[in-house]
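Exercise: predict the fold of this chain.
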Amino acid sequence: MKLTILGSGSPEAYVRRASSGYLIEVGSDRILFDCGGGVFDNLLRSHRLPSIITHIVFSHLHSDHMMDYARLVHASWDEGGKPIKVFGPPPIKIITEGYFGSDGVLAHDLRARTELPQSQEVWRSRGGVMPRPWPAPEVEEIMPGDTIEGNGWRIQSCTAPHAQPFLECMAFALTHQGKKFVYSGDAGLCPEIETLAKNANLLLHWCYRLDGEVVSPGMASTAPTPMEIGEMAKRAGVRSLILTHFRKHMDDPEYHDKAIKKASEAFGKTITIAEDLQQIEI
């Protein structure tokens, strides 16, 4: 398996980091965990086309985890790609229909692209045949505890304390040929994620605040510090840890050093801070 960081940032508009997006290449499949703003452009910067994406898996439906969803699906369709398999919590079906349905926000665009004679001419020149169907991602709604089965790989989900009850939020473990990759989504610490991360080769965990940063009790329960994440990773027997979702005020060498130092004190193994376009073999 190979991980490519397509977005390691937060909802903040920030040139150095796109919002959340993590590509896993496993066998012949290309699985994108979340698709926040800027992820589409970083996919292109990584020298990959939209149509290579076979699956999109959403941890939750905050905008910084799904803002480039429609753009990616539309671009893959325009390249003649196969329908993308999409998994996520409700209401991902309603959202998808809201983009690509007959009364969706892109309906005017799709009618023009499929019915205007000049557009049909362009489509045929690319090798397309008529009539041209609209984008039709294959959407399945999932909940914590559900699994996704693929060609030699399996994704297990669990709850991730974050934005409930307004949003269902999940973490995921992807296993393939004895290797395990775990993505926390946006998550506070909880027994379910610790169990999910047990003996993971790589844990990718959100880090929204630093040790010593004063926040409300509610925020503290859903945004663990680097040291707290390191302690959990150690208990779970994780082999390698990546911290991600860094905010602008945390993103300088001094803050990076502090985060790595605190997490390392607890974890005692390899720790990395995610960077856009970084690639890691698992």
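Check your answer against the key: The chain has a mean pLDDT of 97.
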